[in-house]
Write a structure and sequence with these properties.
globular, 3 helices, single chain, three-stranded mixed sheet, alpha/beta, 86 residues, two-stranded parallel ribbon, 29% strand
């Protein structure tokens, strides 16, 4: 898409395993973070099937990680502290 439309795409991926595979794309700015309608912390469950990972536990085998969220009420400095690219 970024090549066809000659634009910069911002990709947000909270799954650390999937994020690790995003490198090397031209005009794509990946961010290893989660977006929400509120600030705070939220659990993210990494499933054995990495594409089935979610903010909802779907199996007792899911690995839980905690994510700081930056919602619309966060300040710019708060977003930057989470290594956001915005």
């Amino acid at each position: 898409m970024s090549e066809k439309c000659e634009c910069i795409c911002y990709e947000v991926e909270p799954n650390p395993d999937r994020f690790a595979r995003l490198g090397g794309m031209v005009r794509v700015k990946p961010s290893n973070l989660a977006i929400a309608d509120r600030a705070g912390t939220m659990s993210f469950f990494v499933a054995t099937n990495r594409e089935a990972s979610s903010f909802v536990r779907t199996s007792e085998n899911n690995h839980e990680t905690k994510w700081p969220l930056c919602g619309s009420t966060c300040s710019r400095s708060s977003r930057e502290s989470r290594k956001s690219i915005w």
